[in-house]
Write a structure and sequence with these properties.
The complex is a heterodimer. By secondary structure, chain A is mainly alpha-helical. Chain A has a single domain, classed as Helix Hairpins (Orthogonal Bundle). Chain A is built from 6 helices and no strands. The relative contact order of chain A is 0.15. The mean pLDDT of chain A is 88. Among the domains of chain B are: 34 residues, no CATH class; 98 residues, no CATH class. The chains are: A mainly alpha, B mainly alpha. The interface between A and B is large, with 43 and 67 residues.
Chain lengths: 103, 867
Amino acid sequence: MSDPFLTLGIDPDADDHAVEAAYRAAIKRCPPDRDPAGFQAARAAYERVRTERDRIAYALFETEPPEPLDILRRAEAQGRGDDEAAPRRPDPALFAALLRGED
Amino acid sequence: MARKRKKQSSHGGSKAAAAAKQSPEVREREALQALESGHWRDAIQALKALLKDDPDSERTPARRRALADAYAGRARDLTAKGMLKEAAVIWENRAALGADIPPSLDHGILRLRLGDPQPLIVAWAHPDALNREERQRVGEQLAAAVLSERLVGGDTALLEQLAEDDPIRRHAEPAQTALTAYCNADQRGVEAALAQLPFRSPYRALAILLKALVRAETEPDAAREMLARIDGASAFAPLRRAAELALLPDAELLAELDRAGPRQAELVAALRGWSKAQLELARALASFQRDSGRQQKTLQPLLKRYRDLLGHDWAQQASLRLMPRRTGLLDPNPPGWNALSGHERALIKAWGTEPEGDPWDVLDAWEMVAQGLIAEQRGRRDAPYSLEIAMVLRRGERRFKLLETEHPEDYPDSPETIAAEQLERSLQWDPDHRETYLRLITWYRRANRLKDARRVLSQAQERWPQDMALLEAAMETALASNAFKKAAGIARRMLAIDPINSSARRRLVEAHIEHAAKQIPKRRGDLARKELAEARNWTGRGAGLEPVRAQLDLLEGLVVLALEDPEQGKARLNESLAQRGSGVVAQVELMLAVDRLTLKQDDVAKWLGLKRVKVRDPEDLRAIIGQLRSHADQVGHFRRTLMERLAAALKGAPWKQLERNELEHACETLRAFRLNEARREAARAGLKRWPRTPMLEYHDFDSRYSDGGFPSVSELDKMEWALARAREAGEMRAAERLRELLQQFMPFGRMPGPPVRDDPWDDPFPPAPGGEGQDLGEGIALLLQVLEQMPLKQALEVTGMPKPMRKEVMRIAREQGDEAAVEMLKAMIYSAAEEAGELPKPQAGGGRSKARSADDPDGPPKQFDLF
């Protein structure tokens, strides 16, 4: 089971409002007809941390260690700083290397 | 290695020698088969040998072309594996076959990759020699090479070998400008440069790629569709693959990243905005995920190495879940991490205790966590802190659902008492948790601690005066206190809030009937009738209460018959029975009513002149099973005289005319009434038609021993086979019941084993000589040895003692010490052994225990009952 906070892209200290907003954004991003797996994941994550009690229970009683995917998402979430909106662009040399056949 | 080569060579030589003996036609056919199957090396070897051995054949030109195809196939394989130089050698071999072998475009492309563009430049300069697709391909390859050169250092060597008006040369500048503008996030620059590239430009795939990459930031689905338009054989395809990888969902990316080359991975990282460290971490995680055999604990070093990236607090919290949970193994100062706080240590211990620990251990462990939190909060009572404490105090009860029991154990140190006390304290920290009040009220009521139930109820109702669940709990508590007026008042409140609440009505009706029954021994017919009249009032026009209204006719008639006016009562009852058809179904309904009022079945039968009846019609049987089920659900208790009458009525009932699900349902109902004889008949009738039905097998076994007795070894074997079949069939409910049944007869597994062995002639599967079936004395000696030599808790687990028994023994050990508990167990074992006529033997290997008592060789086996 993936970390619900990372699935929804919120901090563990998010409040009810933030959880709700993240869930709405997630299901907009993954509508059930186009991305059923993504929708299910968002739904399951929301159910697990919907209320303050849920979130405290998760912090105290969840014993499952993190999945590799959780760690990847956490690193991504941490890596995103204030410049999140800034475009992510590679170095031209990288294009050149791939065009030369290096992979 | 040399030996291996020699062996291979010798093997290859003998193969070649064997092939040489075949006719050229056969050899050619085999070579062409190898070619068709893509076995390039075999095809090359065979065709080369054939050309050498049969040079003058008219088939030689065709064989040379086939050899050229085999070389091409092999060279492409090597190229795909990245073995470019080896592939080039193979292409050269192909080219050397002769002028009649046309040059391959793939050969030219490979030479371009190895730094020699000439073959492709020559081909590009002769447009007539190429078809449209080949020309497009060559153009893209040269364009990609030109672009690569310009991007790296502005080298124009290749560019200058092209004519000035060559589109590759003319479009190189805007292509490079577009790409550089993209890398600089200059959107306008990209658009302006791409506008200079015509539709048929050799850089068209690059234009699609750049547009897709720009679009990927806002519309990933559209970007994927655009990327799919770039041909897989295009010179720009490596860029397309990396871009597609970057657009994958996280889980798929992690799976694919492990297979991506380093440059592709770098481009993915750049497109996703990852740092170098993030890419390293992602590749390490991809590698971890690929190797599913790796244990979770190997994630720990990754968390530690990348904790700056992940955030120290998050990494520490995640690592707590990977630490060993046994206190002895837990390092309070784990290297590389912050020292564990008291709360963290207590939490890890509680996590470790939960899966295996008994309720005492789990309650203790969470109590420690709660105490740690209380000490840390230093009197703070704001929401998150107080909620944490309350939830921790509720955890042990929640884990085992201790207060849901129907038969509370409220002695001072019982887990239930401890849990109830923890729940009470949790309400001090979180008084808004209605569920906790309800659990406490129900448990206190069932434990007959009505004062406590009322106290908690009062606290809860102050907060939620109109709450239906609390009103229902209040009504149950009032009924348990025999406060019928109060209960009726509460029921009225409930019905005022929810007029169609039939459960409140039903419960109140049942309570009045129960109260009426209490008036019978006091011979207070008037009070009994008053209660029944109250009950009738409450049935009103409530939906689903018709059977109760009908039963009230019988109950009122019975009160009149037994306590007031026998003749009038008899008339009323006969009339009621006549309305029901006067058959066996009506009589069973009367029996149930008699039982509810605690009257004597024989007396009522005698007064009414009723003879004993038997069920012979399957429709009657179905109706009676329905009546019994309803009675069991609503009333839940009954007397022995009812059981006897029902047993007599059901003897020889037409079970075989019922369907399988009806029989399973009937067996369940009969089990509730402990009508084991009838249950056995029903189960066996079913097993004749549907052999080996797991649930029917369970009822057959269980009904045989529910009233006492002990199964033989072969019976136990049969139960075990039935259990295996139930598990195999996925009938887990039947499997669980069979498992519990087996455990009841073998609390220590097969040790020391039942004391008796059937006559081997009766056993269809007699045990192998010297196989299973342990000697009783030997088993007991072993049991004693285990108790004496191992720690008590471990010893109890080793013996396979059922969990509830283990808990009880451990409770005694806590109260009186381990030695006292061991002595008690030893005394029980000696006593049981003595009863079974077998004293423990100090050494294994004695003779077999006696199968049956010497006095009664045909009598039932002795029960070996330790507990």
